[in-house]
Amino acid sequence: MRPEILRENLLGWYATHRRRLPWRETSEPFAIWVSEVMLQQTQVATAIPYYLRFMNRFPTPAHLAAADIEEVLKLWEGLGYYSRARNLYRAAGVVTSRFNGQVPDDPEAFRSLPGVGDYIAAAVLSIAFGRVLPVVDGNVKRVLSRLLEIDTPVNRSGAHKIFQLPAMELVCPKQPADFNQALMELGALVCRPKNPDCLACPLADLCRANRHHTTADYPKRDASRKIPHRHLAIGVILKKGKMLVVRRPLDGFLGGLWEFPAVPAEKGQTDRQGVESMLAAETGLKIAVDRRLTKIRHAYTHFTLSGDVHLCRYVTGRVRLKSAHGHRWVTLRSLAGLPLHKANHKFLDALKSALGP
Length: 357
Fold this sequence. Notes:
7-stranded mixed sheet, 357 residues, 44% helix, alpha+beta, 2 domains, Nucleoside Triphosphate Pyrophosphohydrolase, 7 strands, Endonuclease III, domain 1
């Protein structure tokens, strides 16, 4: 394969078919960085409104670094993978204090920032600064696997390095920003996971899978492991018109988000007495369960979740948390200002109906 022909075909296609996206209307490195962080694990259409709100509130690293993490998480609410927001927040602080508020264009310096791995480093440095680095995301892996008939499963540990080698050979040294975006765009619009539009592909004549009629066989994937399931007993504890919410530890899964007290519950522990006992141990309060409000289900990347939500009354005691890092007694109105994760959002309508106006 002659890389110069591939580059010419791909860049010509991209010039005509590239989507108009807000982060492509700027050359500001911080804006490009924010967009790439959001686009990890998130579809473009979902990311756009979050990106616009985030950049309107935090146009520079200094603005982000000066904010409260709770406000940052609230703006990120619903986008998921909250470690991205926490790392971006920490990195903005480093950029502000160590790099005079300017995103560093040196690969070693940029890679030293929290949350910056191979993908983010290559994407930001190539798009914002013209560094000749290959970007390898899910779309690029799919394109390369078909183009070169690469048999390495894309979800296998270590696959990134395997795909990075041909990506490095193909990246255009004169236009790395456009080339990387074009390759990702091709994967998103044409070389799709299902029903790829090979007739519209500018690389069809160069593609081994297209030539050998093996497109449906690529990319290869290792079989997924069975996803574990967790069940929770969730308590909405009411005291004089307010509800108890607790804050998760800042470091860790869903770190820094607020939620209603919840405890793991096994089969046979979801009776009223069992729920009262478990929530009492978690919160330090003596409570009484009035009734079960509803049941929720939610899926995360690595596990599925179900939960029985119980309306509870505060009886006596002082909050002494077992695992959470902070608590508040809130009204429904003030609850709306806190960053909650999606599983809690799933029973808010039922809660509002139960509590009334």
